[in-house]
Amino acid sequence: MEKTSSTEVSVQDALPTTQPSDLEAKQDGGGIVSDAAILASLGYKQEFKRAFSPVEVFGLGFSIIGVFPSIASVLVFAIPYGGPVALVWGWAICCFFLMFIAFAIAELGSAAPTSGGLYYWTWTFATPRWRNVLSWIVGYSNSIGLIAGLAGVDWGCAVQVMAAVSISTDESFVPTTGQIYGLFIALLICHGIVASLATHVIARLQGFYITFNVLLCLAVIISLAVATPSDFRNSASYAFGGFTKLYDWPNGFAFVLSFLAPLWTVGGFDTAVHISEEATNARTAVPWAIISGVGAAGVLGWAINIALAFNMGKDMESIVSNPIGQPMATILFNSLGRNGTLAIWAVVVVAQFLMGSGSLIAASRQVFAFARDGALPFSRIVCRVNPYTQTPVNAVWSSVLIALLFGLLAFAGPAANSAIFSLAIAGQYIAYAIPIMCRFLGGKAWKPGPFSLGRLGLPVAVVAVSWMIFSIVIVAFPAAPAPDTEGMNYMSVVMGGWVDGSSSASRTSTCPCTEANTGSTARRQLWTVVAALAPSQYPTKIVSAHNRTVRSVVMCDRWRES
Fold it and tell me: Distance from first CA to last CA of the chain, Å, rounded?
């Protein structure tokens, strides 16, 4: 990407006069105008290599969901709150409502595909009074949700590796929290190396990720159906109607608490959005990847849960408390024996590892975008793009460092460890809900992309936001009633502190495209313009640009509202 030779540019040169919907129809040398031009209409200059095809964008989102490894990681949150009913019907209910979120995010992603999508959309559509603080809350919630998701995936991978060791030693080895954390650190470092690779290398891996995950799901379903001894086989009436709980919550509420498992598994709706600046035909590829990824994961996951319900026996307590330390590994051990379990489990660990690399890629792109807009500490360092790989290497390792800190929650006990999973869900849903609401409540004109819900957009958004609010409340509850210090769900504490700190910082620091971004207070960061601005609403003053790649973007003293 060429750098401009001048540190000052004219309004006409620096700011786009067209909107993405207009660019879509323009022709450039016989073809549709480039993705870089569409990104420029959003106010950002192309910095990454666009190497992801639409299928590979889908592959990244699908690999992050990682259906079977994710179910294995959070099965402990489903079985104690309903057993087979929670697995089968809890999953089905959640996935039905999760599709509404997918449609709402996909519509926004098609209209404005940029790495910082969620907080960018918030600032674009929110009212002038609220857009500053809301974009900060969304940006920080999105960041903490993605990084907590990375921590949850890698912690789950570490537990799965230790479960394999336990099985191979006839359950004589019981790992300590310190040993799991040590492996957790090693996994994060490995993922940091993978996520720092060049974009085209990461993109080419996605085809393998898709095939690997689908074949794993099919292998588990078939092997359970064929190899499970009769002692562990369940009737259809029990598989679809058996209810078992291990805690003292009322039956209905216990069933609702089991939603944490599918809510965690089928997530990462914004993955395609964060990789959009590295994708070709992003305005079509992004929504397609989001909807197809969630739909495919929902169907495959439901099939796996039904297979588990038919082949896991009826002693739920022994599955959860088995010395193996991993409920899914226990179920496989009962069905396939030691050697069969180790064979399947080795594949599961590899799939979980692949999930971790994808999670870090998505998290690092969000961190990069937020730092590019000067909203993080040390933004000028974090947002640097490596000139050799053309990837945000500094953002990758910043994300790794924060994930390492989240992992320390495990030393506060199992309940605190579960807060990592709850934190990922709550952080993401706050970041999803706000821009969806701002689109309809902010009063700004809506310019749809190639994918549009039309009149269905509002009812879909109402259902999506209502479900997310409900889910945030649910995942904040502790595992059992009347918790003590060890049984406390610390998600609300961490999330509350994070949101409060980010909202307070928004009053004194810079924020994307806001009035705070003027003069020396902007830390000389380059800010961008919203694609919906008309020429008469351009900034009234051009200021010097600093020596980053994005020299052609300008700053302003103030904005005139439409």
Answer: 33
Are 309 and 87 spatial neighbours (Cβ–Cβ below 8 Å)? yes
Residues ≥6 apart with Cβ < 8 Å to 529: 15, 16, 43, 513, 538, 539, 553
User: How far apart are the C-alpha atoms of 117 and 273, rounded to whole Å?
Assistant: 6
Q: Count of alpha carbons within 13 Å of 305, Cβ hemisphere only?
A: 30
Give yes or no for a contact between 294 and 50, defined as CB atoms under 8 angstroms apart: no
Residue with tokens 């209209």: 111
Residue 70 token pair: 């994710």
| pLDDT band at residue 486 using 50, 70 and 90 as cut-offs | low
Q: How far apart are CA 360 and CA 362, in angstroms?
A: 5
Q: How confident is the model at residue 501 (pLDDT cuts 50, 70, 90)?
A: low
Q: Give CA–CA dist 97/294, Å, rounded.
A: 11
As given in the structure block, the two tokens for residue 218 are 């099919």
SS3 366: helix
> What b/e string do you get for 110-132 counting C-beta neighbours within 10 Å, with b at 16 or more?
bbbbbbbbbbbbbbbbbeeebbb
User: Which of 53, 349, 70, 347 lies closest to 202 in space, CA to CA?
Assistant: 53
Distance CA 346, CA 409 (A): 27
**Cα–Cα distance, 507 to 528 (Å, whole number):** 20
**Structure confidence by residue, pLDDT tens digits, 407-465:** 887 787 666 666 666 777 887 888 899 999 999 988 788 888 899 999 999 999 999 99
Q: Which residues pair with 28 in a beta bridge?
A: 31
